[in-house]
Amino acid sequence: MSEARRRLAILMNPTSAGGKPLRLLPEIEVQLATLGLPHRIVETRDIAHAGDLAREAAAAGEVVVALGGDGLVGTLAAALSGAGPMGVLPGGRGNDFARAVGIPTEIEAACRLLAEGTEKALDLGMANKKPFACIASVGYDSDANRIANETRFIRGNLVYAYAAMRALASWKPARFSVRLDGVLHEFEGYNVVAANTAYYGGGMKVAPNADPTDGLLDVIFIGSSPKLRFIGSLPKVFAGRHIEQRSVAVHRAREVEVATDRPFDLYADGESLTQTPVLITLAPGKLRLIAP
User: Fewest beta carbons less than 10 Å away: which of 60, 89, 101, 155?
Assistant: First the structure.
């Protein structure tokens, strides 16, 4: 598709990040008009509605654009799954997908990218056959994600720090049995993270070497350590330096099977996606992104 002739269907989650997309909308309208990009804006009601809208827009030859957070990005990527190109206007709390693939958070630059960017094929994660764009994790992260999603009185990235502390207070170590391309690993600790991209939790670089174009998942095991040491190490995650710790192991695999000693929800792109036991794989090149 010629960049100059892109027609955009901007699908907006109006409740994302306390209504952030609605606050961004006037500037977006001005920038797209200045760029001469034909577009329409549609509010999504829920995941099913967003998926239907994305498929309809792609069938009509429009570029589907996510205006919201990582949850909406994952939903639209799953709905399209190679059927058409997708763009992103960051409008969530964390915007970790945009951060990972180099999409600007400034609205003027992000809108310009929709006009001037090129299509790039990225991998799409699959957890029990349910697609995700960024990172799937299970364990302590399951509790922290649930708390973050339920919290309404804290806005912005501070919600992640609040959720981390709340989750840690009642956390008991879990037993994980993980098969990586058929090879069994067992450990006790906090998390299993299967990463298609590098970031989650509002800028935490949990998988610093993850590459969404290489057909492999970066798999991070976070093993047992005292709670005070664990919480004290969280700032290191923003620089990706946590992987230097003895309690952290880094692997790469095409197929990840995770079983746990008690039930956990698996969260991906900030949303509850499925439950353990879980099989995590990749669909190579299934996300066509308008990228720098």
Answer: 60
Average pLDDT, whole number, for the chain? 94
Instruction: Identify the CATH number of the domain in which residue 19 sits.
Output: 3.40.50.10330
pLDDT-based confidence at 264, cuts 50/70/90? very high
Vertex 49: Cα angle to 45 and 50 (nearest 5): 90
- State the pTM of this model: 0.92
Residue linked to tokens 């502390």 = 165
Write the burial class of residue 76 (CB in 10 Å: 0-12 exposed, 13-18 middle, 19+ buried): buried
Structural domain contains residue 122: no
Asked whether residue 290 is domain-assigned, the answer is no
Asked if residue 253 belongs to a domain, the reply is yes
Question: What is 49-75 written as a DSSP string?
Answer: HHHHHHHHHHHTTPEEEEEE-HHHHHH
| CA atoms of 42 and 49, how far apart (whole Å) | 11
Task: Based on the fold, state whether residues 221 and 277 are members of the same structural domain.
Answer: yes
Alpha carbon distance, N-terminus to C-terminus of the chain: 16
197-207 per-position pLDDT tens digit: 999 988 999 99
Q: 52 and 110, same structural domain?
A: yes
User: For 46-82, how does the pLDDT look when each residue is reduced to its tens digit (9 = 90+)?
Assistant: 989 999 999 999 999 999 999 999 999 999 999 998 8
Q: List the structure tokens of 259.
A: 């079983």
